[in-house]
Fold these 4 entries.
Entry 1:
Amino acid sequence: MTGAELLVDGFGRVRDSALAAVDGLTEDQLTHRVDPDANTIAWLVWHLARVQDDHVAEAAGSQQAWTSGGWSDRFGLPLEVGDIGYGNSSAEVASVRASADLLAGYLSAVHERTVAYVDGLADGDLDRVVDDSYDPPVTFAVRLVSLLSDDLQHAGQAALLRGVVERA
């Protein structure tokens, strides 16, 4: 298995887990908060897709699906168009409201772009340094594995919240 194949498999697991977390839920269920400041399923899935979209587009030197695919307009969120969720306030988390279909559509669009880019990488491409401000410098492989880790954690959080919502 090549590095690209391994990454494609990993990003497929992110997509599958996040899609399962939102499937069939209402907007109220997707935005349920277990306490007044908790993240919601909608925010978690939106955020993991936004981060993936942002990071992969930057690496590929392409536009994000969020803007080029019209997803920002479809979501109509009261956030800056470049917002990917890092450091969002409780009110900003609450402002991420979307249907399961809209979240699934955006995540799927991001996944397709990610796979199209990552699948074409050679193992040597993964050794490229993308951030030399760290010691040791961060390679593209490390950045992608960090992205996978973050996305899988958020997909797991969304799945946990789904279980809480379904039992409420």
Entry 2:
Amino acid sequence: MDERAFSDRAVSLFQSGYNCAEAMLRTAAEELGRDPDTVSPLATGLGGGVGRTGNLCGALTGGVLALGLAVGRDSPADTDRKEVAYAQARLLEARFEAAHGTLNCRELIGLDLTTHAGLERAHQEERFRKVCDPIVRETARILWQLLGEVRAQRPA
């Protein structure tokens, strides 16, 4: 997969009904040769800014989980991989905020999704398509770049 196919896949999964976090994690799992059906449920509660509370954007948190698939550790003794994972998460967060101006779903989408009225309005105004599709696409692009940087740093 190339960067365009990766970001297209994430948006396609989001449009098919997966939330933003699930779409990000599933796309990365597919790219990394992991079973998306096994890992994507980990991201289900992260959509809409963690349980639709409007906090940290699900595309961002799903991306952090995806980076964990790529660089995370298998043992608490592996502090080197822990530090790599932390550094990659910080890079994703910084690039996301630079691209979107905020990390929070509520500010990105401009509505309070914890209320029935806010959620209904988001659907009526197609905010998920108009606002979230581009965010998922851009976050996938950033994630693709970070995954490439991680691959380039690994010893041959």
Entry 3:
Amino acid sequence: MIFKNFSESAQLLAQKIKDEEFTSSALFYLNFESKDFAALVAKDLNQPISLLEDPNLLTTDSKYLIIIDRGDTLAEEYNEFTDILHQKFPNKEVVLAIPVIPTAEEDTLKKAADILLCLHSEPNFFSINQFYQEY
């Protein structure tokens, strides 16, 4: 799957989140590299988004904690953040929302989160650049 640009993949990922009916969700991004992409998804969902380390996370009433990333974070980093969230919030479901992931990491990501949402899993994943016409 090739996307025209990050806006297109953000729109498609937002639609997938809507289709899964993740009402009562809080949206987060992991790092500043994914902030702009995550903001595009949040805009399409008409919801606020914040950095995962934001102290407001401690007061969220949301059932789902959705981590939005553009796909260039390592699986180990996702594991670290989802482990922290599972420890702090055992009654909330952690969702990873990523447009494209390496097939080799799909099982690892499914184990890290309660729910994995991705638009495409690619066996020949070299970098996220290969999935965008305008990169």
Entry 4:
Amino acid sequence: MEYILLGGIFIWPIVLESILALLVIIERILFFVFVLPRKHRALSKLLNLSWEGESNWDVPHELGELVEAMKRAHEQRSLHLSLLAVHAEKLINEVERYLTILNVVAQTAPLFGLLGTVTGMIKLFMSIESQSLAGLPITPSSLAGGIWEALITTAAGLIVGIPALIAFVLFNRLVDRFAGEVDAFLSEIAHRASLLGWEVV
């Protein structure tokens, strides 16, 4: 706490961003560990449903409205790719939820640290000037405040920004992988529907 107080005003946005980033990272880790694998399995199960006769639509709800759209397509023998794409996009958006926050933190936390460095140096030189004009000796202790603020905010910004950036990149790779799987699913659905003579629009 002592170091935070020495960091000046711009340490507080960094502290708030660190809390926010930590919450997002924990939430996303839980999602990618427990929820995303279920979505993978549900997508695979939906793709492997029988395309002739009665189908077993006992698919987990992890796929949301995509399952209902596939049910209607099967009943009507008509596949609306644009509608499926909309539902698929909702799935992808759910997987990449909150990642924008991590991206913002990764970019702005070091900038807040840099801003704190600049303000700390300004205070440092103002202190030097005021002491010179007053004829007072310039000692290391009299300059410590500005140096503390400059160094602490820089370090804090990097400490928060680097993990946020790493988490954003890793999570984004998982999102891209899932998005590729969804795209492959849509392509395979369209291919199978055309082979069965369905109307594909």
